[in-house]
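Q: What structure does this chain adopt?
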Amino acid sequence: MPSIQACLFDLDGVIVDTAQFHYIAWREMAQDLGFDLTREENERLKGISRMESLEIVLSIGGVELSEEEKARRAAAKNTRYLELCMQMTPDDALPGVRRFLDELKANNISTGLGSASKNAQVILERIDMLHYFDTIVDGNRITKGKPDPQVFLMGAADLNVPPAQCAVFEDAVAGIESAKAAGMLAVGIGEASVLTQADIVIPGFENFGLPQLENI
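A:
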């Protein structure tokens, strides 16, 4: 395996845990429509776009809406999500991630964010981590969601690093599939039993550093 020259990170569940905020906002919308959304059902929404998530939530509740009402509901959900995100502070960055990014910078390894979120920049500003990333590829730039490799291929192109020399950090199955489709090393954050296609799965960044990455 060629040495790693760039690391690309998903946002939710990797840099910061905003999943809880997504769940609260989607569940409130579901309850407003007359049904509940369980945490297990919410797992299906990880790593995919807002409109795709909305379609899944509506299918769970057996609810049909007009395209106009879907757009209104999606916008309202996002407004609620951002209200919750505005409560975030630098302490909300996941354990060990800031130290790992410092280590990458110290070793001249480029860093990029690859997320379906359209709010990535706002969230990074709230947790004071925007300066860590050499490029941000988010929902405002991509035309194809994960598992399509577009988001990570754009990140590699921005950083001028061949895909084979990029490592991706992801907590969602769709994100791991996206990384593999891009021809990149895939590091899963979470459970090995779920992220079965990852090259390695770690629980988080607390006991993970550059030596471990280079040994994969």
